[in-house]
Design goal:
Mean pLDDT: 84
Number of strands: 33
Shape: globular
C-alpha cells in the first residue's frame, strides 16, 4: 500500500468545490473533518459539508463564507443501548430505515445536489452511498477513516440480524466505487477499498499553553489533574469525592447544567477546547474513539479507558495506544463502582512515546486537492482477494486485542473475486448439497443414539469426502482445508460433547460447592485420525516446513468449522516436537506463550492443549501425525461452556483414537487443566464435568472438591429449564471473573488466618477465651476452620457469627500481600496495583452451597406451586448474589426482571404462575440466564413473550436454549471408515 507523510504543495490552478459527507457517529469524525476543512478553506476552496452533526460544531472552529453546512442523514453510525454498549440489531434496522428503504430517493437527491454545487470531488467520512452517487456522476470520490461500516456491521449481522446481511453487501459495494481510501492510524480491516494511502494522525492543534489553561481554571502547576471525558454518563450516576486519590482534581467534560459534582471535580464549559485541556491534564478517563485516541497520543496524555461492547473499531485503536504505552484498561465494574484510584495512580507510571506526525489534516487536504484536479496519487491496484488478505494481516491479526473476537464473516470473504463487484445469487445462496450422506461410512463402533446433530456432522464429512480438487476454489477456506485433512480409507474417531446450562452453583464451583448442571442439546463434534508421518496428508505450507526441516516429524493439523464467523484463522498446524523440550514436554507457561504468539490462532490452545496435557499428566507419547476436525454448535460467549465442550470432545476423540482408557471424571479434570494452564482461563471444573459426565434430561449433581459426582438428578416431568442468552458476551478469561475469584481466595485466606490466630490464643491463654467466635465451639472447630480447604465447607451461620464482620468490602492487592503473603490459588495472580472486592465474593459461595443443597432437596418434593416458588426464590437469591460480586449485567438483569414480571402478573390476576425464577449462569458478566417454570404450553408462550419484549427493549432477540442431550461419556465414540465400493 502507498503511504503519505507529505505531499506536493503546488497550488491548484483554480478554486475547487468539495462536497464533504460526514457521518453523524461520534464527534471524533467531526473534529478530524474540521481540520481537513480548515486547510481546504485556507487554500481558497469552497467546502460544502453534508452531515447530521450540529452546524455550530463547524462554524465555531472555521468562520468563512466558503464553508457551507447542509443537514442531511445518510447513515446512522451505531445505535447505543447505553453509554458502553451498542445495540447491534437496532443499528442494522435503523440503517435500513435511514439508507436502504429511501435509497432511490437518496441517489436522486444527492445527484441533484452535487450537480447544483458543481462539485469537483466527493469526500466521505465514511458515508457509503455517496461513493456510488459520485461514480454514477463521473466525479472522483475519496474516503477518510480508520474503519468502514461494512466491517463494523458484519459482526452485528452474526450477533443479531443475519437477515440483514444484504445491508453489509450493499455498503461494501458502495465503498468499492471509491477511488481512494485515506487510511488513518489505528485502522481495522477495510477490504472493500481498492486503493489505499496511509496518512498521519489528524489532530487539532493547541491554542493555549498548559500554564495558561491551569491558570484560567484556578489549578496549581503541580496539582494532579484528571480529565473525565466520558460522553453519555449512565443515568442516575453520581460522581463521588472519594473516587479520586487525595489531592487530585477532576475536570468534567460535557456535564449537564443540572449535574452536581463534588468539590474536587470541576465542570468545564460546554465550549471548552478539548486539546488544550488534554495538554493541561495528567491523565484522562474515557472511552476509546478516534478523536480521544489521536489527541492523547499527540499530547502524550495517559488514557484510562473503559471497554465498550460492539464498538468494533475499538480493538484497533486500543492496540495503537498500547503500542505507544499510552493506555490502561479499567474494568467496567470498577468504573461504575468508583474504584478509580489504582488505575489513575498506575496511569502516572506510563511513559507515552508517540513521536509520529500529527499533520494529517494538512496532508489529507493536499491529497484531496491533487485528486480533484486529476493527479494520480497511487499506482498500485490490488484484486479483491489481495485487499482482503492485506486487511486481515494488517488489521485483525496484528491489531485486535486478546480475548475479543472481531468478525469477518465467511459470506463477506469472496475468495478471488472482486469485492466491489457486488453480490450475486451465487455469492450468498446456500450451496446445493451433494448426493453423498453419512451412510457412505461404515460405523465400526458406537451408536448414533438418534442424535440428529451427529447425523448432520457425518453428512458434512460425506460432503467433504465428495470434494475434488477442481471444486476447492469454490469452497470456504475451512472446508477446502478439511477436504484434504483425512485419508478416507482409514478409520476416523468421532466424539461429541454438549454445552451445559448452569442451573445452580455457578462460580461457587472453585470454592467446592455442590452444583447442578444440565447438558444442553447443542454440542461440539470432533473427528480425529492418526497416521504415520510419511503417510499423512499435509497442507502445502506444512509440506514446505517439513522439507525445510529435512525430516518427517509427527504433525498436528486442525480445522475448525465456523472459524471464519469468529474471525479466527480456520486452520492450525504444528510439529508435535514443538511440545517437547528434550525428553520432556514443555511447560504449560511456554505453551501458553506459544499459542498467544498469533491471536488469530489462539483458539487452537483449546484443541491442541489437550495433547500437551495428556503428554504431561499421563505420559502419553504421540509418535503419529494427527488430523483433527472441530465442528461446534455451542455458541461462543453465551455462558454455556463452548470451550469446555471443545476440550472434552477433543480429548475424548484423541483418547478413542489412541486407545487411552480415561474415566469421565479424570478426563474432565484433565480438560480443566487445558483451560487453566494452556489457555490461561481460571475456570472451575463444573463445565468440563457437566460436558463429560452429564446425561440427557438430568441434572448432574457434583461437589467440586475437586470433582466428585454425587448423583444424576432426574428433572421432574412437571418442571422445565430454559436458557435465554442476553446477547452480552461472556468470558471466563475476563477481568471481572478473575478478580472475583481472587477476592474469594483472599476471603478464604483471611478466615483461615483469623481461625488460626484464635487457636493460638486459646492454647496460650490460661483463662478460657470468651470471644464471640470461640464461645461454645471449642478448639477443634477452630482448627478445622484454620485448615479450611474449600469455602463451601464453612456453614453460613459460622461465617456470619465469627468472620463476616472482619472481612473487608475491598482490599488493595499490595495491602493483602503485605499482610497475608499469598491467596493460595494456583490459577490466578494478585495484582498489587489494583483493588479487589472481598466480602461479597467470599459470602457468595458459602451461601450458594447452602442454596444448591436446598434446591436439590426441593426437587424431590411434591408437585406444587410452593415447590416451584421455593426453587425460583433460590435462583433469584443466587442472581442477586452474582450482582453483589460485580458479575451482573444490564442484559441478564433485564431478562430476570421480565421473568419476575411474568410471575407477578399471573399472581396479580388471581391465577397460577407458569414461570417461577431465573438467574445469571456460569461466570456471569453477561451470557445466559437460566429460567425455571412449569412444563406446559403457557410457560413456552411466556418464554416467547420474554424474547420479544427483550428484543423490543434492546434490539437483540435472545437465543433460546431448550432441550438436553447426553454427555460425552454417555455418547462414547464412533469409529467410522468410508465404505468400499
Amino acid at each position: 500500500m502507498a503511504s503519505a507523510g507529505g505531499a506536493d504543495r503546488s497550488p491548484p490552478p483554480r478554486r475547487l468545490v468539495f462536497a464533504f459527507y460526514l457521518t453523524g457517529h461520534g464527534f471524533g469524525h467531526a473534529t478530524r473533518a474540521i481540520e481537513v476543512v480548515r486547510h481546504l478553506v485556507a487554500a481558497g476552496h469552497e467546502v460544502h459539508v453534508a452531515t447530521a452533526v450540529p452546524e455550530f460544531v463547524f462554524t465555531a472552529e472555521v468562520r468563512s463564507s466558503r464553508l457551507r453546512i447542509r443537514r442531511v442523514i445518510l447513515d446512522c453510525g451505531a445505535v447505543q443501548a447505553d453509554p458502553l454498549t451498542v445495540d447491534p440489531l437496532a443499528t442494522l434496522e435503523k440503517y435500513r430505515e435511514a439508507a436502504v428503504v429511501p435509497r432511490e430517493s437518496i441517489l436522486r437527491e444527492e445527484t441533484e445536489w452535487l450537480s447544483s454545487i458543481k462539485a469537483d470531488l466527493v469526500i466521505s467520512d465514511v458515508v457509503p452511498v455517496v461513493c456510488k452517487v459520485a461514480a454514477h456522476m463521473g466525479i472522483r470520490s475519496v474516503c477518510i477513516g480508520n474503519f468502514s461500516w461494512d466491517f463494523i456491521y458484519s459482526e452485528y449481522i452474526m450477533e443479531a440480524g443475519y437477515h440483514h446481511r444484504s445491508v453489509v453487501w450493499q455498503i461494501a459495494e458502495d465503498y468499492a466505487h471509491c477511488d481512494i481510501l485515506l487510511r488513518l492510524p489505528g485502522y481495522g480491516p477495510m477490504p472493500a477499498f481498492r486503493n489505499v494511502i496511509d496518512v498521519p494522525l489528524i489532530v487539532r492543534g493547541l491554542r493555549k499553553s498548559r500554564s495558561e489553561v491551569r491558570k484560567e481554571l484556578g489549578l496549581e502547576e503541580n496539582a494532579k489533574v484528571l480529565l473525565f471525558n466520558f460522553g453519555g454518563q449512565p443515568a442516575g450516576w453520581k460522581l463521588k469525592q472519594e473516587w479520586l486519590p487525595d489531592g487530585w482534581i477532576c475536570l468534567v467534560c460535557g456535564a449537564s447544567d443540572s449535574q452536581d459534582v463534588p468539590p474536587n471535580f470541576i465542570k468545564l464549559a460546554k465550549d471548552a477546547y478539548t486539546p488544550d485541556v488534554i495538554a493541561a491534564s495528567d491523565c484522562m478517563l474515557g472511552k476509546i474513539g478516534y478523536g480521544a485516541a489521536s489527541e492523547v497520543l499527540a499530547y502524550k496524555l495517559p488514557l484510562v479507558f473503559v471497554r465498550r461492547d460492539y464498538f468494533n473499531e475499538e480493538p484497533f485503536l486500543r492496540n495503537l495506544l498500547e503500542h505507544y504505552q499510552n493506555s490502561i484498561e479499567m474494568i467496567r465494574s470498577d468504573f461504575l463502582a468508583g474504584h478509580w484510584k489504582p488505575y489513575l495512580l498506575r496511569a502516572l507510571t506510563l511513559q507515552p512515546c508517540y513521536n509520529g506526525p500529527t499533520n494529517g489534516g494538512e496532508v489529507v487536504a493536499q491529497i484531496l486537492q491533487d485528486t480533484a484536479v486529476g493527479k494520480e496519487c497511487i499506482s498500485d491496484k490490488f484484486c479483491g482477494a489481495r485487499r482482503l488478505q492485506d486487511a486481515i494481516v494488517s488489521g485483525y491479526q496484528l491489531q485486535r486485542a486478546p480475548g475479543r473476537d472481531v468478525h469477518i464473516p465467511d459470506w463477506y470473504s469472496l475468495s478471488e473475486t472482486e469485492i466491489g463487484a457486488g453480490p450475486t445469487s451465487q455469492n450468498v445462496a446456500t450451496k446445493e448439497t451433494t448426493a453423498l450422506c453419512f451412510e457412505d461410512f461404515e460405523i465400526l463402533h458406537g451408536d448414533l443414539q438418534g442424535l440428529t446433530d451427529t447425523m448432520d456432522f457425518l453428512k458434512s464429512l460425506s460432503e467433504l469426502n465428495g470434494n475434488n480438487l477442481e471444486s476447492l476454489e469454490k469452497q470456504h477456506t475451512e472446508r477446502t482445508a478439511a477436504s484434504v485433512l483425512f485419508d478416507w480409507e482409514k478409520e476416523i474417531y468421532i466424539a461429541r460433547a454438549p454445552g451445559r446450562l448452569d442451573v445452580m452453583g455457578g462460580i461457587a464451583d472453585y470454592s467446592g460447592s455442590l452444583v447442578l448442571q444440565m447438558p444442553l442439546r447443542e454440542a461440539c463434534h470432533v473427528a480425529v485420525q492418526r497416521n504415520h508421518p510419511n503417510k499423512q496428508k499435509l497442507w502445502k505450507h506444512t509440506q514446505a516446513r517439513q522439507l525445510e526441516n529435512a525430516g518427517l516429524a509427527p504433525v498436528l493439523q486442525i480445522v475448525s468449522f465456523g472459524s471464519e464467523l469468529s474471525n479466527r484463522a480456520p486452520t492450525f498446524d504444528m510439529d508435535l516436537s514443538d511440545f517437547m523440550n528434550g525428553e520432556k514436554p514443555i511447560s504449560y507457561e511456554k505453551a501458553r506463550e506459544f499459542f498467544c504468539q498469533n491471536p488469530s490462532q489462539k483458539w487452537a490452545a483449546y484443541v491442541a492443549g489437550t495433547i500437551l496435557v495428556l503428554m504431561t499428566e499421563l505420559g502419553v507419547q504421540f509418535t503419529d501425525s494427527m488430523s483433527i476436525l472441530v465442528s461446534s454448535a455451542v455458541p461462543e460467549g453465551k455462558g454455556v461452556s463452548s470451550s469446555a465442550s471443545v476440550e472434552v470432545a477433543t480429548m475424548s476423540a484423541i483418547a478413542a483414537a489412541y486407545g487411552l482408557n480415561i474415566n469421565p471424571r479424570d478426563l474432565a479434570l484433565l480438560c480443566q487443566k487445558v483451560e487453566n494452564h494452556v489457555v490461561g482461563a481460571p475456570c472451575g471444573v463444573m463445565d468440563q464435568m457437566a460436558s463429560a459426565c452429564g446425561e440427557a434430561n438430568k441434572l448432574l449433581a457434583m461437589v467440586c472438591q475437586p470433582a466428585e459426582v454425587k448423583e444424576l438428578v432426574s428433572i421432574p416431568t412437571h418442571m422445565r429449564f430454559w436458557g435465554l442468552d442476553s446477547g452480552i458476551r461472556h468470558s471466563v478469561g475476563g477481568g471481572d471473573y478473575g478478580s472475583v475469584r481472587v477476592g474469594t481466595y483472599m476471603g478464604r485466606k483471611m478466615i483461615k488466618s483469623a481461625a488460626s490466630d484464635l487457636v493460638s490464643e486459646s492454647l496460650t491463654s490460661e483463662a478460657p477465651v470468651q470471644s464471640d467466635c470461640y464461645k461454645g465451639n471449642g478448639t477443634g472447630l477452630l482448627k478445622s476452620e484454620a485448615a479450611l480447604e474449600y469455602l463451601c465447607n464453612l456453614p453460613p451461620h459460622r461465617f456470619e457469627a465469627s468472620y463476616a464482620k472482619d472481612i473487608p468490602e475491598v482490599i488493595s492487592g499490595d495491602a493483602f500481600l503485605e499482610k497475608y503473603g499469598d491467596h493460595s490459588d494456583t490459577v490466578t495472580v494478585i495484582d498489587p496495583k489494583r483493588s479487589y472486592s472481598v466480602k461479597a465474593p467470599t459470602r457468595h459461595p458459602i451461601y450458594e452451597n447452602f442454596r444448591v443443597e436446598t434446591f436439590k432437596t426441593l426437587l424431590a418434593a411434591g408437585n406444587t406451586d410452593e415447590q416451584l416458588s421455593g426453587l425460583g426464590e433460590l435462583m433469584y437469591q443466587c442472581h442477586n448474589s452474582y450482582s453483589a460480586c460485580g458479575l451482573g449485567s444490564d442484559g441478564t438483569d433485564r431478562l430476570v426482571d421480565l421473568v419476575q414480571e411474568m410471575q407477578h402478573r399471573a399472581t396479580s390476576e388471581g391465577g397460577s404462575p407458569s414461570l417461577f425464577g431465573a438467574k445469571i449462569t456460569g461466570g456471569g458478566s453477561g451470557g445466559t440466564v437460566c429460567v425455571i417454570g412449569k412444563n406446559c404450553a403457557r410457560s413456552s408462550e411466556e418464554i416467547l413473550e420474554i424474547q420479544q419484549r427483550y428484543k423490543a427493549a434492546t434490539g437483540y432477540l435472545p437465543i433460546l436454549f431448550d432441550g438436553s442431550s447426553p454427555g460425552a461419556a454417555k455418547f462414547g465414540y464412533l469409529k467410522i471408515r468410508r465404505r468400499r465400493s
